[in-house]
Amino acid sequence: MKYCSNCGKPVELLIPKDDDRPRYVCHACKIVHYQNPKLVVGCIPEWKNKILLCRRDIEPKKGKWTLPAGYLENGETVEDGAMRETFEETGAVVENLSPYLLFDITHINQLYLMFHSRLVKPDFHVTPESSELRLFDEKEIPWGEIGFKVIEKTLKQYFKDRNTGTFPFRIQQIKQH
Amino acid sequence: MKYCSNCGKPVELLIPKDDDRPRYVCHACKIVHYQNPKLVVGCIPEWKNKILLCRRDIEPKKGKWTLPAGYLENGETVEDGAMRETFEETGAVVENLSPYLLFDITHINQLYLMFHSRLVKPDFHVTPESSELRLFDEKEIPWGEIGFKVIEKTLKQYFKDRNTGTFPFRIQQIKQH
User: Do A108 and A177 contact (CB within 8 A), yes or no?
Assistant: First the structure.
């Protein structure tokens, strides 16, 4: 941030009075521009003993496999956001969403909330964001080609919990290398 | 948002190509300025059969009672954020945090994540944000003077679950009136 989004004048990075960390401040408007983490919401879409992965057709990680997920939008519930992202990336409709894993990814100011879910039917198709969609069972997962560490961790936890038959809600952290 | 935070030129609200909702776009920088919900994190601090509430000494809802909670900061885990807010507003240290309630508040683009927690010891004090701190048992809760609907719902759910002895993670929604 270099300029005030309210008046267009340059902002200054300083610690405001009664605060304890640097913020972008506009001296003209007297506005403090707070910056906060963004929430990504997504799904593990199950169909029988398989799960649906998408091969990314956009950067970053074009060509790698992932689970459907994306930024929560203003005005949207977390569940609606996860369903929307799943539909946008896979063409599939999910149901029975249950909150499963929340990841803190502090070095990039992101949070991921992943839902356990079920495909309404095994209908999915290539989309502008995914070049290929496929149902994988556990031994077919392309572990070396998963695009993001958070998705790899989600899948590992999922298969671990599937062995026990329960998917308790958990908070985990993704650290930078 | 009226001006680009990167170059200071006016932004335009329009639906970008390959998108489906209006965004603030800077034609000079070719930047789309996305806006997303913000996450508030907080605690229900327990001490024996009582819980700690704070009387707000700042607006909004100055003079009303609430639970400690505030915006998650960049670079911070949800648990660290909830502990920090509790300390800032009550002077108390909490432990044994367990994720309990997630609220979608779509009409103000906020999410609340409230943790079940325990006071390390019954030490708390007035802070710049709270004019009074007090441990309440269930029948003492000042229901008519709780500052926010999300906090009232948190407390109601808490006392309901306490009767059963378990605090399962749940997602709920706060709607506008």
Answer: no
List the domain boundaries for chain A: 1-35, 38-173
Buried residues in B125-136 as b, exposed as e (16+ CB within 10 A):
eebebbeebebe
| Average pLDDT of the residues of chain B | 97
Pick among 2.20.70.10, 3.10.180.10, 3.40.640.10, 1.10.3720.10: CATH of B1-35 = 2.20.70.10
What integer is the mean pLDDT of B129-139?
Answer: 97
Q: What is the pLDDT of residue B177?
A: 75
Q: Answer whether 0.90 is exceeded by the pTM.
A: yes
Q: Which residue of A has its CA nearest to B172?
A: A77
Task: For chain B, say whether A7 makes contact (Cβ under 8 Å).
Answer: yes
Residue appearing with tokens 């506008």? B176
Establish if B96 touches chain A: CB-CB under 8 angstroms.
no
Residue B18, pLDDT > 90, answer no
Q: Which CATH architecture has domain A38-173?
A: Alpha-Beta Complex (3.90)
ipTM of the complex: 0.96
Residues of B in contact with A4 (CB under 8 A): 3, 5, 8
- What mean pLDDT do residues B25-52 have? 97
For residue A152, the surrounding DSSP H or E stretch is helix A149-164
